[in-house]
User: Fold this.
Amino acid sequence: MIRETLVAVLLAAMATGFNTASAQQKGERKAGKAMSEDAKRGRYLVQIAGCNDCHTPGYAPSESKVDEALWLTGDVLGWRGPWGTTYPANLRLVAQNLTEDQWVARAASPGLKPPMPWFNVRDMTGRDVRAIYRYLRHLGPAGQPAPAYVPPDKTPSGPFVQFPAPPPKPAAKSK
Assistant:
């Protein structure tokens, strides 16, 4: 009985491993074009850094079950706060219009509006930022540009997440 159970568990584990490997290989090929090692690293970084959470429509709510063909195509869900309303950029289109060096410079730019954690990207190594760029270039252009920024005094027309106002600053203590 124990032997049959072990065999069944082993077979199930092997099947799962083969399916995972097959899915990964499928993601690493685009129209027959093999993915470079740098692009593979970029794909990995995009997944662990949470880029898809905002820049891929439906990624977080579906627990990452979004076809890779839609990854990083931006979203129409706005993020509204004291800064106005921003939208996750279609990184695949952005990367197509920048050189690799321009991408690296933009990644470190404090000019990106909240809630984009530009400071996290700024702290990545140059190798990692370039790997993400190479992955985006491997994917190629897809989708539409993100909606335009909406200033704080305007209400966005589409769906948005409302951030609360920051807490008031504590009063200075008098001596």
Observations:
- Residues 1-31 have pLDDT under 50 and may be disordered.
